Amino acid sequence: MNKSKIAILLGVVCMVLTFVMCIQLKTIDVANKTVASSFSENRLRDEVLKWKDRYEEVYNEVQIEEAKLEKMRKKATENDDAAAATREKLKIANRLLGFTELTGKGVEITLDDNKLQSVDGTTTGNVLDYIVHDDDLIQIINDIKNAGVDAIAINDQRIVSTTGIACDGNVVRINKEKVSAPYVIKVIGSPEGIMGALTTPGTCFDTLDKLGLVKSVNKSNSVIVPKYEGIIELEYMKPVE
Amino acid sequence: MKGKGIMTVTIGAMIALLVCVMLMQFRTIEGTDIKELETMRETELRAEVAGWKTKYEEANKKLIDTQNKIAEYEEQEANNQESSKLLEEELKQAETMLGKTNVTGNGIVITLKDNDIALIEAYDLYKLVNDLRLAGAEAISINDIRITAMTDIKEIARGLMTIDGTRIWSPYIIQAIGDQTYLESGLTLKTYGYMDFVIKGYDKTGTIERQENMIIKASNKDMILEYAEEVKK
User: Fold this and answer.
1) Contact across the interface for B59 and A75, Cβ inside 8 Å
2) What is the mean pLDDT of each run of 10 residues along chain A (241 residues)?
3) In this model, does residue B129 exceed pLDDT 60?
4) What ipTM goes with this model?
5) What does the alpha-carbon distance between residue A216 and residue B71 come to, in Å, rounded to a whole number?
6) How does pLDDT run across A44-90, given as a tens digit for each residue?
7) For B131, which residue in chain A has the nearest alpha carbon?
8) Residues 61 to 100 of B: which have CB under 8 A from any A CB?
């Protein structure tokens, strides 16, 4: 009798021990996986930094070479009035294309998600209403263009002829670059015209303002709009005479 | 009795050993970085790498392009050629990018029409322009009006719109030059693509077709900068 009692007790103890060991082995397995993935993540982080460095290096080189090119252009047109006029036209074309940093009077608008999700204690009950979406930016940019402006940038991404605005999870992509709230829209143009176009009742800007997403609007005499850092590639279209 | 005592001691020793091993294991697990569990963002990092790579490649292209131009100018200088020729070429290229020349190429044509249930709105047009640009469109026109970087599309009454001040109405014919497959698939993504979501989702009428060698006309608007000046370095 006593012997079998001991045997049962031992059996139970062994089972518990085995059970705990199994749990531990599983935990170790997960932990090992984490270690492995953090290794590959670290490798990826290095990779990100490496490509970023490379990009910055080449970008600086481009700046230097462009300055050199402009000097060569100047030199080539020194004693030639017609050529100088062409050079001037080219300069203006490059400004219009977005390849230069511009300054002038205009407006700076900041949009941000309304984290309190209510204005004057009222709420629409839909969280999505209190977030700035890609579609809002598309509408606001078109409304700004309606005012006939010179240059626009969102979070330092210049709006050029190839610019598309897209949703990418919880961020927005502009010129393929990730941008996220708060969105700072810099516009060079008539401040009165821009605000007139934006604040017409029923516009997207008007709606966002009512939902508390418009954080600030600053008119200024010296808004600076950065240049477009990408390239405009023409692969599929050809000019016809 | 003696045998039993030995057995108990042996079993006791084994259990003690097991507990010891288990404690050691717990220690080991604590030592590994469990915090990393929370930052499983491998796909995100991969996207980041791809993004910088693309940027690098674009910048590299620009660098090569600029260097080639410098070489051309140097060659011209060495040969004492007419100086304005290269400049004119550069200007022509810039004007093509601006939309100041007629261009030709393969692409797609989208036709949007008002119907008895729903009218086409300004949003439908500029959202389409946005989505075409995302799909890599190089030149776009709506009812033969060239869409440039700062083109504005306005609805001035129901079913009546202006593009850069010119009035247009249904049917709206949008031409876009670019990679036909990209352009088409960019618009026809299921459920959330432009055609499904913006057009069919609101009972509007629209069709897409491919076209070869189409011509998109130049913009005829004056492109000037009224308020902006270049930042002097």
Assistant:
1) no
2) 80 84 73 66 85 91 91 83 88 94 96 75 71 94 95 96 90 89 95 94 91 93 93 90 74
3) yes
4) 0.79
5) 48
6) 888 888 999 999 999 999 999 999 998 888 888 887 788 888 989 99
7) A164
8) 61-63, 65-67, 69-70, 73-74, 76-77, 83-84, 86-88, 90-92, 94-99
Q: Which of A24, A40, A231 is nearest residue B62 as measured by Cβ atoms?
A: A231
Instruction: Name the β-bridge partners of A122.
Output: A119
Q: Contact A230/A175 with Cβ under 8 angstroms?
A: yes
Which pLDDT tens digit goes with each residue over B163-173? 999 999 999 99
Is the CB of residue B114 less than 8 Å from the CB of residue B120? yes
Q: With contact defined as beta carbons under 8 Å apart, do A116 and A213 qualify?
A: no
**Separation CA B127–CA B172 (nearest Å):** 14
CB contact under 8 A, B33 and A68: no
Enter the tokens of residue B150.
Answer: 């700062």
Q: Determine the Cα–Cα distance for residues A61 and B61; give it in Å rounded to an integer.
A: 12
Amino acid identity at B167 = R
Q: Which of A188, A189, A142, A143 shows the shortest CA–CA distance to A165?
A: A142
- Tell me if chain A has a CB within 8 Å of the CB of B167: no
Tokens of B60: 């590299």
Secondary-structure percent of chain B, ordered helix, strand, coil, rounded to 5: 50, 20, 30
